[in-house]
Amino acid sequence: MILTTHAVVGAAVAELFPSNPILGFCAAFLSHFVLDAIPHWDYKIKSHKKNPEDPLNGGVKFGKDFIIDLLKVLIDLILGFVLSFLIFSKDGLKNQEIALMGAFAGMFPDALQFAYWIFKTKFLKSIQKIHFAVHQIIEIKPSVFWGIFSQVAIIAIVLFIVLK
Q: Among the residues of 16-143, which ranges form H helices?
């Protein structure tokens, strides 16, 4: 899933636990892996160098592709925060804080994945193994249109359930 989807769903999940922000954070964090288990489209990260023989041994190549990827990811990240903020701003500052915290938690596993590609620590490797395993349950390569459409549909369904 793209970061925007993870952010909005994470914010929605965190909103289910307004009196327990720690539980909301944890639930939003876990929502990332639930979403990643759904067959989906991701935009290409050209600076990520995959190792087909050992997927946990990939890395990042710094250069022009990295800058382009960084801009893509930043736009996606900002859009996720902005949408989360706007959708959950109706009930005041407490809801906005919960929504932004949930958006952060929903996107955080991808930040940990990026950190793993660079630092390769044991702790990050254990999270990366889970991330990789969840992504591999069912792998499809939908078109960009259907990929984005399906993510918008997921956001709409989650918001329909949470905002009832």
A: 21-37, 64-87, 93-119, 122-135
Report mean pLDDT in 10-residue bins for the chain, 164 residues: 95 94 97 90 86 80 94 96 90 80 97 89 91 76 79 92 84
- The domain in which residue 136 lies consists of 3-156
- Looking at the domain assignment, is residue 161 inside a domain? no
Cα–Cα distance, 151 to 157 (Å, whole number)? 10
The per-residue pLDDT for 142 is 66
Distance between CA 124 and CA 102 in Å, rounded?
21
Secondary structure (3-state) at 1: coil
Backbone φ and ψ of 63, nearest 5°: 160, -155
What is the rounded distance in angstroms from the CA atom of residue 98 to the CA atom of residue 21? 7
Return the closest-CA partner of residue 133 out of 63, 56, 45, 22: 56
Find out whether 158 and 32 touch, Cβ atoms under 8 Å: no
Under 8 Å between Cβ of 12 and 42: no
Does residue 164 lie in a domain region? no
Beta bridge partners of 59: 49
